[in-house]
Amino acid sequence: MTARQAAERLEREPCTIRKWASRYRARVLGRAGRETVYDYADLATIEWCIWAGHPVPATPYDRDELRAARRAAAAA
């Protein structure tokens, strides 16, 4: 998902999404023309951490583990 598409879904500005991607090293999936394509789940996890006041995990792999733990807790 491009920064523009993610911004629409997360109700943020595209520049905010690009800043998060840079600051938190969001997972990059490739390019679509001139735009970078990011992993939306990774961006959504970053947004949740910021919104909830939690520290953002340092790597995409740590954020994957956080998502898995949240899913397991919700299922229990």
Can you describe what's shown?
- With 76 residues, the chain is mainly alpha-helical.
- The protein has one domain (3-75).
- 62% of the residues lie in helices and 12% in strands.
- It contains four helices and two strands.
- It has a two-stranded antiparallel sheet with strand order 1-2.
- A hairpin with a 2-residue loop joins β1 and β2.
- α1 (3-10) crosses α2.
The largest beta-sheet arranges its strands as 1-2
Strand composition percent? 5-15%
Average of the residue pLDDT scores: 96
Helicity level: 55-70%
Number of domains: 1
* Overall morphology: globular
Radius of gyration: 12 Å
Number of helices: 4
Brief sketch in words of this structure:
The chain has 4 helices and 2 strands. It has helices at residues 3-10, 14-23, 40-52, 60-75; strands at 28-32, 35-38.
Characteristic key phrases:
76 residues; mainly alpha; two-stranded antiparallel sheet; 2 strands; 62% helix; 12% strand
Show the helix and strand layout.
Blueprint lengths: L2 H8 L3 H10 L4 E5 L2 E4 L1 H13 L7 H16 L1
Antiparallel strand pairs: 1-2
